[in-house]
Amino acid sequence: MLPFPRTGLYAVTPESLTGDALVLSVEQALAGGANVVQYRDKSTDQERRSADAKRLLAVCHRYAAPLIINDDVALAQSIHADGVHVGKDDSNLAMAREMLGAEAIVGVSCYNQPQRALDAQSAGASYVAFGSFFPSLTKPGAVRATVELVANIRPSVRLPIVGIGGITPDNASALLVAGVDSLAVVTAIFGDDPKAGAAAFSPLFD
Predict the structure, then answer these.
(1) Residue 16 annotated as catalytic
(2) I want to staple 160 with a disulfide (CB 3.0 to 4.6 A). Which of 110, 127, 194, 196 is the partner?
(3) Which of 54, 116, 139, 195 is catalytic?
(4) Is pTM beyond 0.70 here?
(5) Is 109 a catalytic residue?
(6) Catalytic pick from 25, 55, 97, 109?
(7) Is 173 among the catalytic positions?
């Protein structure tokens, strides 16, 4: 299993992409500089999801990037993915850690709740994620987090902090200054040219 990178661009796949289009787009994002990928697909087509996840795992590992499965510990376990991301309504952290093992990545959504991040850290999470920081096309009704929240919690969190929600190359700098380590991005990467979309974030990490 690959570890979670301390900093970088975290590509989250859109549910509109499946099969060859999904795999090609993720490979382009990796070529553009993404260093971790989350496979997010809430559909009930388990056979297709498993097939897509296996193909993504092979592509990610060619680029030495971990593949994290959103909200499906069983799928992560079955394909030997590098980890899983859980939210408040998803499989809990303890169960994910028990099923996937001590070396697996287990990320936790903390929304705009600092205490949730501290609890996740104590319970053995690999990283914590806050957001949405900006209006998001992927989750228009998501709760909003603030830059100030990150700045305030950063001294107490040893884990990597991931920011998500409407992030673009133009608005991300404030998050990084406040203490966000990794930028989780959907729309700004997976447009017409995922390689260029990902590459546009590279100067932020130089």
Answers:
(1) no
(2) 127
(3) 139
(4) yes
(5) yes
(6) 109
(7) no
